[in-house]
Amino acid sequence: MIIYNEPKYMFVEHILEKEISYILSKNIEEKMNRRVSASEMISWENSLSEMMRVIRGESIPDDVNILLEFNLPSTQKRIDFIIAGKDKDGQKNAIIIELKQWTKADLADGDGIVQTAFYGRTQSTVHPSYQALSYRRYLENYLESVDPIESDITLDSCAYLHNYIRSRKHENEPLLNDRYSHYYKEAPIYFKMDDLHLADYVTKRVGAGQGSEIASEIETGKLRPSKKLVETLNLMFEGNEEFILLDEQKVAYEQILTIYTEHVLHRDEKHVVLIKGGPGTGKSVIGLNALKALMNEQALVEYITPNAAFREVLRKKLARQKSMIEIRDMFKGSGSYVDTQMNKIDVLVCDEAHRLKNHGHMQRKIEGENQATQIIRSAKMSVFFIDDEQMISKKDIGSYSLIKEEANKQNAIIHELTLDSQFRCGGSGNYIEWINRFFNNEEEIELDGSYDIQVLDSPQQLIDEVVSKRDGRVTAGYAWSWTKERLNGQLVADVQIPEHDFAMPWNDSKRLDWAIHQDGREQIGCIHTVQGLEMTYAGVIIGPDLGYDPQSRQLIVRREEFKDSGARPAKPKKNEVDALERLVKNTYRTLMTRGMKGCYVYCCNPELQKYFKQRIAFTSNEYENVTREV
């Protein structure tokens, strides 16, 4: 969707007559049903006036076309400025220009990441050249009219920081640091005194004008994955043993493809596939294989994960050493479909659907809608992978029953599948049943020994056995407060167990890939970082929020020890069951099913520590010995 598409002479007139912000805000309200803030209007007036000065000269003809606030298909992102026209050789060209009002930036950790001031405080964000290049790649990957293999339109991209005075020495300018060279060489960056250089850059590409037809092709282009993107994705899967389908995984995968090819592709029908599966049943493997196969069918398909950390690890596992910019836009957060039109996307695959919310952080709340509503509305076919036992916050609304209800409201044809076989936890269905019985206070069963589960006597021993010896990661329940800001540049050691002289920090909130990054060895992961992921060995610290009463023989959830205020439900009324009990138990159930080969545990509550050992030792002789010790 394009908010504004006019020839240069009209754009200049709208600027000079001070009408541009009014026209843009009016168009957005009409096309997107969204009101524009005063600060956004001021931003348009400032940046677009600077662009008018760049392109006003005679070297850039009046019949180039200007496209403003181009909404990237199936996203909430908008491209600031596109100029379309032909070069002197008759080649059709369009240039994406990312406009920034920054005055200063600094280096930051992470690929393509910088720091600059937003709303009065310094924050991390992407480098302007990365942003311009990523928008270009996104259009090349999904918009047929600019497909670099099949289209006759060539896209370029650059960034213009019209308020930013760069350092005189190239090597002293943070935005031109060598770590960003891959991006600014492909998408040049222009500063306050570079308006003539930017004008030359534009003139070389669109100096022969005739932009109307090119702009129309961009505005009306069909959405579909490019051949290059499909080939790139196929290469990423090639030889990757993590994505091989086994048994019922293969059955579920084939059913997804059959529903698409036989019912969705050539019919005006809406379909919803509900796939129920516990931890380790291969939900993500099925979903990622379906993503690849559907793209090979030329379907416009996107992969949704509500958990940002899980999304980042999936991207990196899939991309390996390849450029992240090529595949990252296939993976979306669950709040990406607020404004998406009905059936705009062919297929949406939603992993970890139990983590869906009513609405996301900084996301518009629409009466009568939640994220499940928006996903089902936006796609001809939606695939949801669900495990109600992994709902760990009061904000989690994506239960099996709710998503089914939302599908019925939209008159979707519903398909229901269940996954039972265990492909994590050493393939041990016995261990999964043991875990479920433990947290449900049900009669114990004997462990068959196929999975390595142990209770260790100190958190230091846990770190040594899991991290040092087995290169796993240690997680904990949210029973300690979390200091988000660093102290003297270091993470604060919030997870403290004084009786063992133990203190470690929570995982770095800026490192979404904590579970696979080396820094994670010296940090404690939380449920929001690790959910959906797996590791060879998992260590779990069960905090003081969960205990055991030997008199009643019941697990006890201690509300006062649970520190995640955003996830904590309200206190129950008299004679009501505390909803927090289920959330805390689900948290530890989830943490204890992350390990493929084993899970080692330390419990802060002594009675729970003893009880845990008893349950693990439930074999006649060993059980009697442990019972005597207790």
From TrEMBL:
<protein>
    <submittedName>
        <fullName>AAA ATPase</fullName>
    </submittedName>
</protein>
<dbReference type="Pfam" id="PF09848">
    <property type="entry name" value="SLFN-g3_helicase"/>
</dbReference>
<feature type="domain" description="Schlafen group 3-like DNA/RNA helicase">
    <location>
        <begin position="270"/>
        <end position="604"/>
    </location>
</feature>
<dbReference type="InterPro" id="IPR027417">
    <property type="entry name" value="P-loop_NTPase"/>
</dbReference>
<dbReference type="InterPro" id="IPR018647">
    <property type="entry name" value="SLFN_3-like_DNA/RNA_helicase"/>
</dbReference>
